[in-house]
Amino acid sequence: MSRKFIAAAVGAALSLAGYARADGIDDPRRADYFKTFAGKTIAFVPVTMGIDLTEGWAAVMKSQADRLGMKLEIRDPHFSADAGAQAITSLIAEKPDVLVVHNPDVQSYAKLLKRAEEAGIHVVQINMRSNYNSDVYVGADWIGIGEAEAQGAIDKCGAGTSQKVAVLQGQPTSGSDSGMMKGVENALAKHPDIKLVANLAGEWDATKAHSIVSTVIQQNPDLCAVIGFWDVMDLGAAAAIKESGKKIALVTSGGGEQMACDNVEKGVFDKEIAYQVMDQGRDLNDMIATVLESGLPAGKLKAVVYSPQLIISKDTLRPGLCWSASALKK
Amino acid sequence: MKPPGLYENQAVKLMLARVKNLALNQERIVLLGAAALFCVFAVFLKGFLNPSNLVTLVRGVSTLGILGVAMAIVVIGQGVDLAVVATYAMSAAWALHLAGQGASVPAALLLGFLFALSVGLINGVLIAYFELPALFATLGMASFVYGFARYALVPLVVVYMPASANEIGWIGGGFVFGAPTPILFFALIALLGFIFLRFTKQGRFVYAIGDNFAAARNSGAPVRPIIVLQYALSASIAFVAGMITATSVSSMNTNVVNSSLIYDVILVVVLGGIGLSGGRGGIRNVIVGTLLIGILLNGMTIMNIQYTMQNVIRSLILLAAIVLDSVINPRDEQTAQQGDI
Q1: A47-61, B229-243, B260-274: least confidently modelled range
Q2: How far apart are CA B123 and CA B234, in angstroms?
Q3: Quick one: fold of A142-275?
Q4: CB pair distance less than 8 Å for B301 and A200
Q5: How near does any CA of chain B get to the CA of A166, in Å?
Q6: Contact B133, B80 (CB under 8 A)
Q7: DSSP β-ladder status, A71-74 and A303-307
Q8: B162 interaction partners in chain A (CB closer than 8 Å)
Q9: Domain ranges for chain A
Q10: Residue A130 burial by CB count (10 A; 0-12/13-18/19+): exposed, middle or buried?
């Protein structure tokens, strides 16, 4: 091997190494990516702030907005559909780039959301949909959750029990409850031996849930299970069951907040079919980014992102399964 | 010589007087209505008459009844406390929140109580010394209490009871001799309210002020301190009711401030026959009004009637009771009082 060749080989190797060390490869899409988002405005109209779900979504959206130089505006109508409709109406005039809406029921905002998309605002609906299908729905697959909840009750109420179950809805006209009820009906249709002895609504309020479930238990002392539609409200159902001193199963659903894990551990809830709020926030962020990046006009995309079900029961319980709303406040 | 027929005339007069004594006033109408509903439900609804259902029935409205007692003490003095529900929700929610943040339970309870008490005292001072109309002072106070507490004291709409507070779970979720504690608290507070209004000097002054404020003052009653006392009592009772609800369902939903609960409380009071014009009625009226609402709610839940429909039926029955009262006891210059709403 000649000296010359060795020198050339060493030189080549050195220059290669030098090349690798000095020059990174630019991502041609990166600058565009950040440019797409800088200065954009996201508006969020929840049913109310101050509950685990909306605080969770808002926190996750806020972190992305901050990272990408977007503005997140929250208009809190505080459980008032009127105030919410007003907020959306004024937002249509203000023209944010994306409007994230948490509908109180399937009807109230439907026309407004259509108007918003006609005005060129991308509308993302979170967890509670309206009758109008906008660009994106991110949220729980309510029919699936209803089926899973009913199945949880059916598992507890096999032959040898009274096979009587009660349903405790929140607000029957909401997107969540109409879906869950359909799911419960689907599951019960396959089990004609299970008897649905009561189907009442507690208006998302634990105190109302308490008095409803106590009365249902009085009427049906051999009740086997209660299927509740929201864990925060179902605490009232749980208190009624505890006071009755009877062994009645309680299956619930909710956002998988720490309260749910604590109560499953204590045996207050037998099972919660949860939609993980932090993951939903992530889905929201991805879909907000997608509609903005796609360049599509508002109202064209029509995408649905169902959140995976998270089953919280004594069998699945582990540290870190739930998230903490109070930690978000810190 | 006596004209013929005099004795008959006297007998007729006597009878008329008796009938007048038995005249149906609001309280009796509501009591009869409650009894009628009770009988109808007892006959037609399976399980309604079951003793444990009757306990559930009273338990379901015991918080409403306790708040009714608080409201009655104020209304009899010709006032109104629209802040009673805000005080009820926010003081208890703050106490739970403090306990959740690591405060000791007695300290949390004490602070919650002091919060409620100061709301009552401010209300009383505004009304007695600054002479604001009770309607506006307490309406403003209700928004302020809710807004301030949500902003500065309680970060979430629904506050859960922390595990450290399990030791006070008996307040709303316990049993004494088989009776749920909320019913016993209702009975106790009703009894204390009755003793206060009927047998204490201050209680009698409340009636005097409600009946005729100027006359009460001219005859030397300490009207301003008594008014402050009324609102302080009402707020303190509201705190007790709040802790009963909170410990009963292991949480406090502060959104109850924006619900129709405050109207239900006023309804229980007015329906039972305590006039908003003051000076009339007592704790018995609150109990009658509460029972009517309780029977209605319980029966409708047994009949599986949806909550929204329940609201419609409830309001119709209440309207009917009030219409019936105004037909049987029409208002005229003599019976109407200034301040009637």
Answers
A1: B260-274
A2: 10
A3: Rossmann fold (3.40.50)
A4: yes
A5: 11
A6: no
A7: unpaired
A8: none
A9: 30-140+277-306, 142-275
A10: buried
Give the pLDDT confidence of A83-141 residue by residue, as tens digits. Answer: 999 999 999 999 999 999 999 999 999 999 999 999 999 999 999 999 999 999 999 99
B5 vs A: CB within 8 A: no
The reply to whether A267 touches chain B by the CB within 8 Å rule is: no
Contact B249 A209 (CB under 8 A): yes
Inter-chain touch B47–A78, beta carbons under 8 Å: no
Is there a common fold for A30-140+277-306 and A142-275? yes
* Chain B interface disruption, residue of A164, A197, A212, A218, most B CBs within 10 A: A218
Global model pTM greater than 0.95: no
Domains and CATH numbers, chain B: 29-323 (1.10.3470)
Classify residue B15 as exposed, middle or buried by CB count within 10 Å of its CB (0-12, 13-18, 19+): exposed
Residue appearing with tokens 């403090």: B98
- How far does CA B201 lie from the centroid of its chain? 22
| Helices B51-60 and B62-76: angle between axes, nearest 10 degrees | 50
Specify the amino acid at residue A104.
P
Locate B220 and state its tokens: 């030397």
Fold of A30-140+277-306: Rossmann fold (3.40.50)
ipTM of the modeled complex:
0.75
> How far is the C-alpha of A219 from the C-alpha of A200, rounded, in Å?
14
Q: Are A60 and A281 in contact (CB under 8 A)?
A: yes
Determine contact: B157 vs chain A, CB below 8 A. yes
CA distance A311 to chain B (A): 22
Cross-chain Cβ contact A201/B150 below 8 Å? no
